[in-house]
Design brief:
This protein is of the alpha+beta class. It contains 2 helices and 3 strands; from the N terminus they run E-H-H-E-E. The protein has one domain.
Length: about 80
């Protein structure tokens, strides 16, 4: 699974090199698409901590987070 590399709290993203752009895309696209389809509208870069909570609630007991040197924007999750 791939998702934006971010913290779940805005204060954890202050130094993110793409933070302003990713917040804009998340709020203007991701959140509105989610709400339009009956989702929770998490938006605003919901972050790794919340991602882990949701994966755990979905029954995944193993979550590995990988980062690629050339990709400053994403976390890559291997979940089981």
């Amino acid at each position: 699974m791939q998702d934006i590399r971010a913290a779940s709290r805005p204060s954890g993203n202050v130094g993110h090199p793409l933070g302003p752009l990713l917040y804009a895309v998340s709020c203007m696209h991701c959140m509105t698409v989610s709400l339009a389809q009956g989702g929770e509208g998490l938006g605003a870069m919901w972050g790794e901590q919340r991602t882990r909570e949701y994966l755990s609630a979905a029954g995944f007991t193993s979550v590995e987070v990988h980062q690629l040197r050339h990709d400053i924007q994403n976390n890559w999750y291997a979940v089981r």
